[in-house]
Amino acid sequence: MAERRKGHVWQPIRDMSPESRTAAFPELDALLAVWRQQRARLDGTDALREFQARLVRSWSIETGILERLYTLDEAVTLTLVEQGFDASLLSHGDTDLPAQQLVDILRDHQEVAEGLFAFVKGDRQLSTSYVRELHQALTRHQPTCDALDPQGNWIQVPLRRGDWKLLPNNPGDPSTRAIWHQYCPPEQVASEMDRLVAMHLGHGGVAYPAEAAWLHHRFTQIHPFQDGNGRVARALASLVCIRAGGFPLVVHRRQKDDYIRALEAADEGELGPLTEMVDRQQRDAFVRAVGLAHQVMEQETNLDAIVADARRRFEDALLHRSEALRRAVADLVTAAHQRLREVADTLNASLPSAVCATAFQSGAEDTHWFRAQIDATARNLGYRANLTGPKSWVHLRLQHEDVASLVVSFHHVGRVEDGVVATTAFLTRRDRAIGGREPEPAGAFETHPACEAPLTFTAGRDPAELRTAFSAWLDRAVTIGLDRWRRSI
Fold first, then answer.
1. Which domains are seen in the chain, by residue range?
2. Please, are residues 196 and 13 in contact by the beta-carbon 8 Å criterion?
3. Longest alpha-carbon distance in the chain
4. What pTM did the predictor assign?
């Protein structure tokens, strides 16, 4: 977790103030009442399951980013939140960890968040043993952490998963050994955690934003584990929210400064800012949930009348349409590959210092090359790319002093069964190549659209007309992409 204000001196945790015990949240209460009425319409639906799954995935990502456990590009974060934790969705440069290691950590976080719902459903009460279970699960793929030895030196030690700390974990200046913030001494952790749980269980009738904020802050004052305390604190606050009928407490990276300031205010005895942050986040979640319920209920109005006819029409048309689309995409992929090969030959002849070549990938589900760039380009052009279905790409590798790729991508828009395919083009600049067909970056890449708009088509479009339109669109994309590359070398 991020460093807190300098100068805080440890003292035993204090119980909740009378002001916090009696705090009221009328707007949140009203939203909660509406949600409870509408949730009955959504129980068991895919819409509700997906809404909760996305919240859980968002919590799972952001809770580690706040502690600088890893970095993750925001555009890729949105992709993972929507599509799930899969290493194939990550490209080089998206994160500072190996893709599979990051996914393992995120799945640990996800398992904990999903377990909070099960914990509440089982009507279990909070205990120190459950807190230790949370820590053990959250840090399953974290082998080591920083610690201060008895001489005041920072060292790497094995992380004791699920066990209280044995060494101080006060943040400070490694060069001067000055302590910035004092947490609970190791020898007092067990008794303080017992006090924390006892106080929490005695807070009957307290509004849940106040209780979540109090439990979160007092836990961070103790900091009972060698590392991972911020993640556990946010899990405990989420547990309070879920038990009250709310949602996991997601603190986004953009809120980090406000979050730290709220914790610092709580260190000074003012829990209001942290409580307000919980209240605001929960209200936002309820607004989205109520909107989801309204959308589903609107869809249900005419659903019964049209479902039988729609199913019959869909089944009759799907096989024919998907085969026609497959042929159309294959034809355009071949055309793109031929055109980019011509460009590569021309560049190699006129630029002796450049090494240009083409490559393509057609329909492989296990490839992760360019997925993040394709997704970012689609968003830049104002739509959402569906990269879970069949997809293809062709790219022209442009190697001069650094490496760039001009990429033409074919993918679905919306559901695969909707039968809409989009083609986009973009230039992505890499630092260097390490052999093979695909440039491997030494650092972050830059991605810029090489088209003003995607070329979209369906199975019903005339093949000859589509080929003509695609040729004109591709020539324009090549011109835009090469011009941007020329200005960058």
1. 18-300 (1.10.3290.10), 309-488 (no CATH)
2. yes
3. 80
4. 0.63
